[in-house]
Amino acid sequence: MTSSPQRHSTGDLLGHQLHGPTDPIRDVGWDGTHARKGFFTDTSICIGCKACEVACKEWNRNPRDGDLEITGWSYDNSQSLGASTWRHVAFVEQDREAIEAARESGRRLVSLGMPTVRDGGAGSEGGGATPSPDTPLPPTSPPDTPEFRWLMASDVCKHCTHAGCLDVCPTGALMRTEFGTVVVQDDVCNGCGTCVAGCPFGVVERRSDGTAAPTTRRGERKGEQPAVPKEGVAQKCTLCYDRLRDEETPACAKTCPTTSIRFGDHDELVTSARARVAELHAKGMTEARLYGANELDGVGGTGSVFLLLDEPEVYGLPPDPRVPTADLGVMFDRAGIAALGMIGAAVAAFVGARR
Amino acid sequence: MANSDCIVLQGGNMAEAHPVGFQWVAEAKARGATVIHIDPRFTRTSAVADRHIPIRAGSDIVLLGALINHVITHDLWFHEYVIAYTNAATIVTEDFADTDDLDGLFSGFDPESGTYDSDTWEYAQAGGGEVEDAGGEKGEQSSTEGDHGPGDQLGSGGAPLENAQVERDETLQHPRTVFQLLRRHYSRYTPAMVQEMCGIDAETFAALAETITSSSGRDRTTMWGYATGWTQHTSGAQFIRAAAVLQLLLGNVGRPGGGIMALRGHASIQGSTDIPTLFNLLPGYLPMPVAGLHDTLADYLDVVSGPGQKGFWGNADAYTVSLLKAYFGEHASAENDWCFDHLPRLTGPHGTYQTMMEMLDGGVEGYFVVGQNPAVGSANSRAQRLALAQLKWLVVRDLSLIETATWWKDSPEVASGELRTEDIETEVFFLPAATHVEKAGSFTQTQRLLQWRHKALDAPGDCQSELDFYYHLGVRIRELLAGSADERDRPLLEMTWDYALDEHGDPEPESVLKEINGYEVVPASGEGGDRTAGEGPGEAGDEGGGSAGSEAREGVGRALSGYAELAADGSTACGCWIYSGVYAEETNQAARRTPHGGDGPAQAKWGWAWPADRRILYNRASADPDGRPWSERKKWVWWDEEAGRWTGSDVPDFPAELHPHHRPEPGTGGVDGLAGDDPFVMQSDGKGWLYAPKGLVDGPFPTHYEAAESPVRNALYTQQQNPTRMLYPRGYNLDAPSAGEAGVEVYPYVFTTYRLTEHHTAGGMSRWLPYLSELQPEMFCEVSPALAAERGLTHNDWATIVSPRAVIEARVMVTDRMRPLRVDGREVHQVGLPYHWGVGEEAIVTGDAANDLLGVSLDANTQIQESKVASCDVRPGRRPRGAAAEELVADYNRRAGVTPQTGNQRLTDPEQEGRG
Amino acid sequence: MSPISPLEWPVLRQLRGRDALGRGPAVTSATTRELTSRNARADRVVQSVCPYCAVGCGQRVYVTDERVTQIEGDPDSPISRGRLCPKGSASEQLVNAPGRQTQVLYRAPRSTRWQPLERDTAIDMIARRFVQSRRRTWQDTDEQGRPLRRTMGIASLGGATLDNEENYLIKKLFTAAGAIQIENQARI
To answer: Where along the chain is composition biased (Gly residues) (chain A) (predicted)?
Structure first.
């Protein structure tokens, strides 16, 4: 880090810190020693084993969740990401009609030449190769279209380029790490919950008593967990910040039996994700598409990139995530002088008071 | 596995049961291999396979038989491989009659005993006559040949033959060649039959046949993977045989990316078969002696290794004597037949289900249950719990208070009032066990690889390893018997029990491993006195007792380098001959941990694989008869003419310097009897068996029979069920009527039991863990939308499932993953039931046990129960409580007219067939 | 503890550095700055093998202060390459399970309760019962006078979760005792 603060107008100062393509690591002032880290979750090879969920809880000492009742959502009994569940595997059962619809919607994305500008449905994109107009499109129904399929996808915090949770946190508990990831500092968080509303993906949650629903069974049995740690503070995936510090792979990616979850440098992951989509398209699987790889989307692209086999909504993901502070830059520009003035006044008052 | 071009997973759910093993399937698939999943249910394996083929549970032999038929009819078999390496050309005695001649029976069936006399199945003897089996006493074979079940096949190979002077016709034209018999046997296993019995249409069958045949041959290999979806049937061993026959025809055995892979469920289930905690085996697949058959050591060795038999079983005398030396040390001498008479004798099957019935009859006083949970995990678990109440004392060793430890206060039978805690006489000892990180030792995984675990820390509280517990129990028992003059106590007092001890006075696991490996016997110095408890080594903690640290044990010399060193003269001791070499050079080879196993495709520097560190068995077959690789792409082991030895990527599973063109003198037995093109070194004729003249009790060819309970008629033969299946007509073990019998409509649905990724077997290692419990918190049943509509079941609500044995309840999961099959002209509905839950007060998650519903009908080869297919009814709502539950089952059985005799006729009445 | 310096106040770091909006280095707490992997702090790492199924995945066991702090895949294993399934991933919880029983318990005939027992006492009691039951149920010969030399009064179940060395001792002890009814999960 250079020692002399650089001088900018507020507009320059903010640069693309709140929307559009940018380098989130340098934006916040890290020196860029580390490349931006992220996940690439290829759902086409997920076997739904949930090892990621367990490995995550083991490493992060997150308490058991839920109320120990079957949900009826296929094999999904953890339901969603939350304060104690930082990896969540969704299970979606589809018949032939749904498969064909997915294939068709993916085909349309391909024929759009992939959305390079955000105009509806831009959370997803058609893949790396922009086909020239005369590239023949794969058939909607390759001969192997099955009667039925069972989609499985491991969801996780997106570690957005423009992270709503981070931008709205009033305490500095949320921060961008030197790896470009977004973490909550438990010891700073005061549990105000602003970040919960700030996340367009619904990832962040305050930890209550360790169960998502009112619990009737807590303490009923021996073997129930002891006191829940970190009650009341906001919790979410840290991309195993502590492990990264020691050059260890995040727990979920390390354990994933089929490499459905891959960890690495964000840019390289996006490149290989695009290649994987192209490979599936070549097999006629036009349903394959990327989620979070478009840096022009409402969150500037995400650190966690996904290969999906249907529309994001099918997996419970928002189709067009948009950081609530996306337009803040313009407003901030106008209010910039006033804001700086207020900070200056506050410091002056404070220093004055100490005297 | 990653070397395969096509992987067929059938009778198993690999992605769910073995997710990490599945990475190799995923990798093969990424490299272009085709993955096909054949299973009644659409599972997480199906989800990532190229294709899922739904099949009616229990009809697998029809499908495999039809594939065999297809391969023969369309001349798609691997000619050079089949003629050289299998018994296709061997001629069978003219007395043999097949199931087509006898409407579902082979020749030699005795309806009284329900067993076959396999005399008529034998090979014709060159120059007339037939190849005698070595044993003679046919009547006893139902128990002894149970040794050669699926769990045992890797080790045992085929059954012994007197010698291998067989008549062959390499043109395969002789009508009694195995090949022609095979062709005829499977000629009625057609695509139409597959449609009728399996519910698989002709188009799907054709696609499957095309995929596997185009992925087999010189340059390509197909692998078959199976699990308990095959073994847990009354014809389970034959399911696996059928796949073996197909794989041999396609030339997929002994070659990289080929073979048949068993996917097993427990960390050391292979090890506990190799070094068996099984009634019928001694270590290394030596049979336990049977009264009347093995009365003397000479009798025993005659049966185990006929003198003219080819291959490595020819040295069974060395393996047996070395085992007895390991067990009884200097007390075992040539004069006393190496203490052969110290061994107890079997008189029939004494498996876990027979033991349960003996318990119910009051014949068993004490029971040790060690890391297993039969009150939830065994078939007819209700009867298991009732049996436990008949014991005088019960010892349960586990990590948590599993249902088998607490049934006396919280079982369903206590809740219903059928058992009263205050009346139960059983004393129960619960001893907490050490976990895998709190003790050192070896597991043998499913590909026969031994891996040593180092101890990470001491066990907490009273927790203790089994090694420590049984060692100290043995010491106490010997103390109690010390000085006894009773003949019956001599084996206990004379057994070697003087392992090296650590600083806590507990045995060093490596000291036991060395005994398993085998060592040179050092003759006793001096007079060689009695090493009995109380005076010799063996007393814990005493100065005269086991030595601390690694000090050598008395009589224990150099560790052997492998089983080739074993001798029958008492100069070697070896606790398990197939493991010999694991401690070669006094080094724990199972603890080898070169990252990634070192260079080379066999990854041989990680752990140690039996036998003799071979990673692929029978790998001589990976080269052609002249010793050349079948193709560059599939090269593995080949003959190096210059060096004059076999070489390649693996340890050759063959005598290292035996030239491919070598032909032994006729009549030579043992290893010397092997020809240079006899790759199947554990088979008594060195060939892969398309036809099993011995070794299986229910026929030389796999043949389709319906399950013990089935609403579907056997369309192939009048004979409905396997005639040799073990029957247990008991009031607590009733069977539902099958197709053609009155009352079959009362239990109209087929249910199948299975496990989920998130849990482990009966739940002892998963339902006490919060992180696993939350992922699958409740017992459920999987049904198709059509069945739900038919029975008024509501998704996520409750259902009650009734079988002739019990009634349970489960949450309903209505899913398209279950689909009715069109079989025999009608819809057959299947109900899926995971079996992880049990009723009790201790686990984090509990629920009714699916195994309560199952009856005990066993495969006569393996004594394994049929738990993948049985009959039931399903109705909406929760089950009745208390005595009303029993009444509901009784009412069903009344309506179905069920008695203990139902379903227990060995031979199907041909008239009944007509009514079906 | 270093004395609190006003210069470390986040708002000053924010203005001083390039993190004008206070979302990066400026807002790190001391805990965050010192964060490391607990694996890196472990007293020792021991190679082991997963206890669940028969695939035989390699594990690394991290121990700190004589307590297992983490169990994860061993990347060196050619079988598993560092990966584990959900059960294998839960191995730490198996060892440190809140419901794990660490004390010997005894239930007397007709009793409705467990009572604690010394481990040595328990083994003594079991040895006595073993010897008594064996005597009571001994069979020397069958009805034809052929040797049996066995007891049908003592049985054992389990072994597929145990080590080879343990199964070896069980089979050896029971065979020498004449107790033939030994079974395990291979037939389940």
So the answer is: 120-129
Interface ipTM: 0.94
Contacts of A88 in chain C (CB under 8 A): none
User: Which pLDDT tens digit goes with each residue over B535-577?
Assistant: 333 333 333 334 444 456 889 999 999 999 999 999 999 999 9
CA distance A7 to chain B (A): 51
State CA B193 to chain mean position distance: 29
Q: How many domains, in total, are found in chain C?
A: 3
Chain C neighbors of B462, CB-CB under 8 A: 102-104, 119
Q: Domain range holding A231?
A: 21-324
Among chain B residues, the shortest Cα distance to C74 is held by B595
Residues B768 and B850: beta-carbon distance below 8 Å: no
User: Tokens for B533?
Assistant: 């408890």
At A83, is the pLDDT very low, low, confident or very high (cuts 50, 70, 90)? very high
Q: Give how far A96 is from chain C: nearest CA, Å.
A: 30
B843 contacts in chain A (CB < 8 Å) = 221, 223
Whether B440 and B453 have beta carbons less than 8 Å apart is answered as yes
The reply to whether C48 and C18 lie within a common domain is no
- Class for the domain spanning B1-72+189-264: alpha beta
- Residue contacts between A and C (CB atoms, under 8 Å): 140
**What is the pTM (predicted TM-score) of this model?**
0.90
Distance from CA of B596 to the nearest CA of A (A): 16
Q: Looking at the domain assignment, is residue C137 inside a domain?
A: yes
B267 and C58 within 8 Å at the Cβ level: the answer is no
Task: Provide the H-helix boundaries in B497-616.
Answer: 509-517
Examine residue A46 and state whether it is found in any structural domain, yes or no.
yes
Q: Is B42 helix (H, G, I), strand (E, B) or coil?
A: coil
Q: For residue range B371-392, what is the model confidence (pLDDT) as tens digits?
A: 999 999 998 999 999 999 999 9
Are C51 and C31 part of one and the same domain? no
Q: Which chain A residue has the Cα nearest residue C36?
A: A242
The CATH number of residue C52's host domain is 2.20.25.90
Answer yes or no: is A64 within a domain.
yes
**Dihedral of the alpha carbons of C125, C126, C128, C131, in degrees to the nearest 10:** 180
Binding positions of A for [4Fe-4S] cluster: 46, 49, 52, 56, 157, 160, 165, 169, 189, 192, 195, 199, 237, 240, 252, 256
Expressed as residue numbers, the domain containing C130 is 118-187
B405: closest CA of chain C, how far (Å):
10
The DSSP line for B118-186 is GGGGSBBBTTSSB---S---GGGHHHHGGGGSGGGHHHH-SPP-SB--B-B-TT--STTBHHHHHHHHT
Whether C113 maps to a domain, the answer reads no
Average pLDDT, rounded, for chain B: 88
Place of tokens 């009354």: B234
**Secondary structure element (H or E) that encloses residue A282, with its range:** helix A266-282
CATH number for the domain including A252? 3.30.70.20
In a domain, C149, yes or no: yes
The alpha-carbon radius of gyration of chain B (Å, integer) is 27
User: Is domain B744-915 given the CATH code 2.40.40.20 in the classification?
Assistant: yes
Give the total number of structural domains in chain A. Answer: 1
- Per-residue pLDDT tens over the stretch B791-822: 999 999 999 999 999 999 999 999 999 999 99
> Is residue C135 one of the residues assigned to a domain?
yes
Q: How many whole angstroms separate alpha carbon A233 and alpha carbon A184?
A: 9
Give a yes or no: residue A3 inside a domain.
no
Chain C CB contacts of B471 under 8 Å are 169
Give the mutation candidate from A64, A175, A178, A225 for the C interface (greatest C CB count, under 10 A): A175
What are the domain boundaries of chain B?
1-72+189-264, 466-591, 619-665, 744-915
Residue of B234, B352, B369 to mutate when probing chain C, most C C-beta within 10 A: B352
Residue C15 with chain A: CB contacts under 8 Å: 5, 343, 347
